[in-house]
Write a structure and sequence with these properties.
Elements: E1 16-19, E2 22-26, E3 32-37, H1 42-56, H2 65-76, H3 82-99, H4 109-119, H5 124-145, H6 170-181, E4 182-187, E5 195-200, H7 204-217, H8 221-225, E6 232-233, E7 238-241, E8 254-257, H9 260-271, H10 292-307, H11 321-333, H12 338-344, H13 350-358
Antiparallel strand pairs: 1-2, 2-3, 4-5, 6-7, 7-8
Helix pairs in contact: 2-3, 6-7, 6-10, 7-9, 7-11, 12-13
GO molecular function, one term: DNA binding
Protein name: Integrase
Pfam families: Phage_integrase (PF00589)
Length: 377
């Protein structure tokens, strides 16, 4: 079958079409690949699309690295949590894109440094993440493929990024939260009949629930995005959180009490579409969990809307991850002990919690001085 050019946008990725109840990918070489049934959902389709692209695209390169990266990703991706699996696989795609003409035998520390510097020159956290990814890949090549003897990442040095010290003040936090729900623009600007029009953002109600739960529970945004209704234990009066970041390591978990504020947010989320067959608390129109990109786009869009009316927020590097920092810092300022905050943050020790908060809390001096006065003779 020959694909038809889309007359109107249907929300599907490029070269993906629906035929006979299934998603198909029309490859650049003219072949069709079945991805998944439509009733399996978009997430399954996107996973299969990424898998098929990794199998196909490496054939364009001239080196053996793309093929090996594809094999490494396919054999290791299921070891990672659902919330991180796609991101981990995309890092492999970035390696293939830049090093597709290379053979692994030729890669040394200098080649790795050049790759990191060229791709993420001003993003030290990403350089460190990619170095770790490559180190795992090269270790696998050494053990399983016997094509290398030394891991080139061993000699690569990446600077440690500075601790993030961003704190969102209450005024900016509330402004962003409000802008998630509404947008404003001026009609007939500069004219006598100028007026401000206020509209409603379609996804605003759900995004406000997302932000509220991030703050009220002090949990990572990933845990809130993937929060399921069956984690909410009404009999015990708690939400059972098992942080995805540590589920395969420390396994540190926390039961968070359902306070009246949290209960009110859950009640709001329950009434939003889709109203039936709900699995996730924070969900899209199809009932799937909100993606990281969707939440990030909504947050950044809200900040841009605030900037039009409040210049003080312009240029502020606020991210969704800073909500958790604000929550823990606010809790410390409210008088909670460090051990209580460690439990709230699901940290294994208070050292992590102390570092997390200290970088965002500016100490206040209690020293009071007066200008000297001349003494009488």
């Amino acid at each position: 079958m020959t694909p038809r050019r889309r007359i109107r946008p249907d929300g599907l990725p490029s070269r993906v079409y629906v035929r006979n109840g299934s998603f198909y990918w029309y490859r650049p070489d003219g072949k069709w690949k079945r991805l998944a049934r439509v009733d399996e959902g978009d997430i399954r389709m996107l996973d299969r699309l990424a898998e098929e692209k990794r199998k196909f695209e490496p054939t364009v390169g001239g080196g053996n690295l793309p093929r090996l990266v594809g094999e490494y990703v396919d054999t290791h991706k299921m070891k990672y949590a659902d919330s991180f699996r796609d991101e981990w696989a995309r890092r492999g795609d970035a390696v293939i894109e830049s090093l597709r003409e290379w053979n692994v035998e030729r890669i040394d520390a200098g080649a790795v440094e050049d790759f990191l510097a060229a791709s993420w020159s001003d993003k030290l956290p990403m350089q460190r993440a990619m170095k770790a990814w490559l180190s795992g890949f090269f270790s696998w090549v050494i053990r399983r493929k016997k094509l290398m003897q030394v891991n080139p990442c061993r000699e690569v040095k990446v600077k440690k990024p500075k601790d993030r010290d961003v704190y969102i003040p209450d005024r900016h936090f509330l402004a962003i939260r409000a802008a998630l729900m509404t947008y404003r623009y001026k009609k007939n600007e500069g004219k006598p009949n100028e007026k401000t029009i206020i509209g409603t953002v379609q996804t605003g109600s759900m995004m406000q629930c997302f932000v509220d739960l991030c703050y009220l529970t002090c949990q990572r945004s990933t845990e809130i995005r993937l929060l399921r209704w069956d984690q909410i234990d009404r009999d015990a009066g708690v939400i059972h959180f098992i942080p995805t970041k540590t589920e395969d390591s420390s396994g540190e978990a926390v039961d968070w009490p359902i306070t009246p504020d949290i209960d009110a947010v859950l009640a709001r989320a329950k009434l939003l579409d889709p109203a039936f067959g709900q699995t996730y608390v924070i969900r899209d129109k199809k009932g799937n969990p909100k993606t990281d990109q969707a939440c990030r786009d909504a947050w950044e869009g809200a900040i841009k809307r605030v900037e039009k009316f409040d210049a003080s927020i312009k240029g502020k590097p606020y991210t969704i991850k800073d909500i958790r920092a604000k929550a823990l810092t606010d809790a410390k300022r409210a008088g909670y002990a460090m051990e209580e905050l460690r439990i709230a943050g699901a940290h294994t020790d208070t050292t992590t919690t102390e570092t997390y908060i200290k970088s965002r809390e500016v100490p206040r001096s209690n020293v009071v001085l007066h200008l000297p006065t001349p003494k009488s003779a």
